[in-house]
Amino acid sequence: MVSTVVGAPVERREGLEKVTGSARYAAEHAPPRRVWAWPVPATVARGTVTAVDTAAAMEQPGVLTVLTHRNAPRLAEPDDATLAVLQNPRVPHRGWFVALVVAETLEDARAGAAAVQVSYEPEEHDVSLTMTHPGAYVPEEANGGYPAATEQGDPERAFASSAVQVDADYRVPPLHNHPMEPHASTAQWDGDRLLVHTSSQGSTAVQTVLAGLFRLPEDGVTVVAEHVGGGFGSKGTPRPDVVLAAMAARQTGRPVTLALPRRHMPAVVGHRAPTLHRVRLGAEPDGRLTSLIHEVTTHTSRIKEFTEQAAVPARTMYAAAHLRTVHRVAPLDVPSPSWMRAPGEAPGMYALESAMDELACALGMDPVELRIVNEPETEPHSGKPFSSRHLVECLREGARRFDWAHRAPRTAGPLRIGTGVAAAMYPVLVQPSTASAGACPDGTFLVRINATDIGTGSRTVLAQIAADALGVPLERVRTEVGRSDLPSASLAGGSSGTASWGWAVHEACTRLTARLATHTGPLPPDGLDAHADTAGQADADSPWARHAFGAHFAEVAVDTVTGEVRARRLLGVFAAGHILNARTARSQFVGGMTMGLGMALTEGSTMDAAFGDFTQSDLASYHVPAHADVPDIEVHWIDEDDPHLNPMGSKGIGEIGIVGTAAAIGNAVHHATGTRYRELPLTPDRVRRGAGF
Amino acid sequence: MGDSQHLQGERGGASASRHRTDTTLRVNGKPHQLTLDHRRTLLDVVREDLGLYGAKKGCDHGQCGACTVLVDGRRVNSCLLLAVTLDGSEVTTVEGLTGEGPTGDGEQPHPLQQAFLDRDAFQCGYCTPGQICSAIGALAEAAAGHPSRVTDPRAPSGRAVPLDRDEIRERLSGNLCRCGAYPRIVDAVEDVIA
Amino acid sequence: MKAFDYVRATSVEEACAALAARPGARFLGGGTNLVDLMKLGVEQPVALVDVGRLPLDAVEELPDGSLRVGAMDRNSDLAAHPAVRDRYPALSQALLAGASGQLRNAATTGGNLLQRTRCPYFQDVSKPCNKRVPGSGCGARDGVHHDHAVLGTSDHCIATHPSDMAVALAALDAKVELYGPGGAREVAAAEFHRLPGDHPEQDTEIRPGELITGVVLPAATGGLPSLYRKARDRASYAFALASVAAMLQVTDGVVERAGIAFGALAHRPWRARVAEEALVGAAPTAAAFERAVDLELSAARPLRDNAYKVPLARSLALDVLTRLAEPART
Fold first, then answer.
1. Max CA pair span of chain B
2. Nearest to A99 by CA among A117, A76, A124
3. pLDDT score recorded for residue B2
4. ipTM of the complex in this document
5. Is residue A18 in some structural domain?
6. In chain C, where are the structural domains located?
7. Would you say residue A17 lies in a domain?
8. Contacts of residue B41 in chain C, CB cutoff 8 Å?
9. What CATH number should be reported for the domain holding residue A388?
10. Which residue range forms the structural domain that includes residue A630?
11. What is the count of structural domains for chain A?
């Protein structure tokens, strides 16, 4: 492929709409006679609804109806049990929706919801995860379809006999995605046709699920997700808001908007499950690993098995002949966990890369060199060759840019300053998608695909891919994305969007070019088009181990008066194939690192043992980083020419930025203070307690 | 429709009349007479009654800043202001920042909006209008001599405060961005100061 | 949020009369906390009496050298006021350490004092809370109480007062001016907020029907060195884990006057009178500061998960006192 615009720092196509306020998000589609819905969350952690008294709510001005498990439309049974809302009286966790008020205005709906009286038969609950929880088991698979447990060699014995050992426990608390746009849906029915505007990372999947639940043909459901205010995994599949909006619209015969109140979100949109890690590293005195054991215990809900695959990166990272990874999951009376940016890799690499730092300290070895010494020739778990792997180059380039060679902890007044490093990795994922490309008589080209732009700039990068594949200037390519009546495509998740959609777009454009080459005379009035479907190609097994890698460097200052830790510098160097848009890619890397900074320093949620909910349920108590927390962040990349990926030669970039950031920061805090912390986030209480100042 | 429109602030709601009050707001230079449910916030008025969806609802509790607009030139969280209290006020939303183009034939982005485009200072775009309105308010505050937590306490009172990157970060900390566009937002704000 | 009546008052007297005429009514200032709590169902007023436009936004220097701040002065304006910045720096710093630029533009002086605890159990109407529903119990005592009080708690309530500003006012010997059915009166800022005792539902000493009309900063503390420092989980836009406001007057190598108050440790700004007494008359040495602060904090009774607050508050106080003493020593 002759590259002309791919890779260029092209401006986002929807940028002007976003900065002027004209971009419309899901709750901002206001069809005539639109009304509002407000959910009623359960106030017990486990039990059964015995009665719902809706009389007071119905007396509230403007209230049209109250949906409960008794009167709500019956749905077909979903694959995802979290979508079976108002279908039965069971309460699987606190915050589960037990009623929905529909009213003329937002204010009426909120007042109506407050007036609904729900009675319960509560049951004893258990929401407390421990490493030795008796309910924990090894599932068949962890999230992503990975085997839950792997073992090679004799890791226990190799560890016991190794010259240098690290045996450490790490804890990552529950974390919340909290995209700035709450989950929201506007639903309207026209006879048996359903039109939904929803905030989703993939509206093809929403269409399929809604068609199934409401027993409709798929083409009877249109789902639009034109602009999406972030998702970070929590909008990867449909959430209850879209099902409830559709139910309420059917029941009332009116278009209905349901935008989840922020405080309802932690219970119903998924969260990153807490992970309790035990990492054992055994090494020779020269640093070479002999044994690597990563064991993870996590929780899931009673209605859905989701196992955060935090031990999976250990299967790929380092050359250890003896390797064991295992996940155990305890079903508790907690909200269902789900995807949050780099599920598995983000918490798993925090633990593994912290342990590597501990090992470097135990060996008296530079942590950069320790990682280089343990660079594997083939993927340790699978034995497959890497399609490309430039971790060492990332580490070396980062060390050079960061002036790592001159690192030394120092004191500046009350501040202790230190530096840390950690590696990053994220797998290459790709899904089949379909796309069409059309040549129009006016000389423009139209690319159509149900890709989603959750802020990644997919409209823009797909136009770049198309322009190059067609060999035409970028301005002549138009893109249509974000509607389920476009050619179906995979979701914006798993850092797979651009690879998956771009592959289909590239294929469609290549076919169109071939058609045009054989076409003579003017184009017909409807133009010419071509269609592509990458099923069988994109999802074909690869003989290669395909992953993106990177290296993080962090400098922190720890205030000995308060215990406050502030990042002073962050540097990320990544090797992720060809970078397709330098401008938007940089923003994604920086964004991922910012969320990693939050994971390291400010973000943490607490499961309330008595009540069974997350205490930090709003944005005042759950601290996503603010402007003042975030220093200037430097990002570089090493261009990789990897022929084993997709026609663009790209790897995903949406998640690798968060992977390893927290470990680099934690390692820097150790460097600054001499204290090793093994539980996130590194808030003043924890830091002062550990450091003794 | 003339310069002034009269809207029912709540369509169909059956609240008693004592729970509603006639209110006049000037929004982006246009007067609006509304009969408002007392519970209605400024945010819901501009979005649902006036169709100005630029101001975003991120948390509805003053904890994220996505709803930031200017009221009589000052930046505020519109989700916490009951609209009825603002009778006679001048409200500016992100839609009111654009100007006429040089030829008068279209909208020209405000310099800060252009700087956000130039710097790729956003991703999903949901916090963006609030960031922009907040930055405009913050620049005015600094020009009027308002200090921030990071202003040198020895800086003279009553004089414009110069804004370095730490000042910009602190002053914009009431606007959360989950995509992590913060460094680019600071770049964009610096561009319009320079 | 239930529907409510709305009245805009044009004078203090009219405001008080309007409130008296409507049982269950509340005054509305900037609304940054009240509207928040109404949305949560924690506050359910039948009527709001809007006092936001009362002519109480002036900051005036009085003939006796004190500074009178109107109750409706906005937090951002108060923080920027030259007289406050120059003469009562801890107050300006405390204001700027709180909330966000947007919130400070709306929040009023009076409303800041009357803001309510951010205890998660208080804010969630589905849970027990003696402050919200007397007699319903306290979810925090055996629950998630990482952010809760370590001083002056009761069996009924361990909530903290969230204000930064009020901590500085307490340290600076400010007074709160009230007007109500019984006429006008003043209460010391350090005594304005209550300890929870058996009545955690009462945050303050304000009497039914009273309106805060202003705050007076005394001449005696004007111009004295003062500082505010706060530790928190996020660099900005977060409530304090612990904070301290302090002023110190050192004459001829001896502490002549000290005002110290802690934030986020108690149900009210915690005026550290024990520490102050220990300091007055002593040389401003590190040892004297440590002894004084330790004496004060020996009254702390932390719970399972908030014990970190005691050494944190100690560290903050020693840092601030040391810095205040430095110019006097050199």
1. 57
2. A117
3. 38
4. 0.97
5. no
6. 5-52, 225-329
7. no
8. 35
9. 3.30.365.10
10. 141-175+271-428+543-691
11. 3
d(CA C168, CA C271): 10
Task: Please report residues of C whose CB lies closer than 8 A to that of A625.
Answer: 234
Among the listed residues A102, A100, A240, A249, the one whose alpha carbon sits nearest the alpha carbon of residue A188:
A249
Q: Which residues in chain C are contacts of A683 at CB distance < 8 A?
A: 233
pLDDT at B3: 41
Q: C17: distance to nearest CA of chain B, Å?
A: 19
- pLDDT tens column, A298-339: 999 999 999 999 999 999 999 999 999 999 999 999 999 999
A600 & A572 share domain: yes
Residues in chain A where the model's pLDDT stays below 70: 1-3
Q: Domain C225-329 classified CATH 1.10.1760.20?
A: no
User: Region C78-90: what's the mean pLDDT?
Assistant: 97
Contact B63 A583 (CB under 8 A): no
In this structure, the answer to whether residues A40 and A103 fall within a common structural domain is yes
Q: Which CATH class is domain B99-193?
A: mainly alpha
Rounded Cα–Cα distance for residues B177 and B65 (Å): 9
Can you give the pLDDT at residue B99?
82
| pLDDT tens-digit series, residues B166-186 | 999 999 999 999 999 999 999
A310 and A395 in a single domain? The answer is yes
Structure tokens of C165?
């500003």
The span from the first CA to the last CA of chain B, in angstroms, equals 42
Q: How far apart are CA C87 and CA A105, in angstroms?
A: 50
Whether residue A276 is found in the same domain as residue A341: yes
- Please list the active-site residues of A: 655
| Half-sphere exposure at residue C46, Cβ-oriented, CA atoms within 13 angstroms | 8
Q: What is the CATH number of domain C5-52?
A: 3.30.43.10
In this predicted model, what pLDDT tens digit does every residue of C196-234 receive, in sequence order? 999 999 999 999 999 999 999 999 999 999 999 999 999
The phi and psi torsions of A245 (rounded to 5 degrees) equal -60, -45
Q: B180 and A590: CB-CB below 8 Å?
A: yes
Distance between CA atoms of residues A638 and B153, nearest Å: 45
pTM above 0.95, yes or no: yes
Residue C259 has pLDDT above 80, yes or no: yes
Please state which CATH class domain B5-96 belongs to: alpha beta
Q: How many residues does chain B have?
A: 194
Which of A507, A533, A559 delimits the end of a domain?
Answer: A533
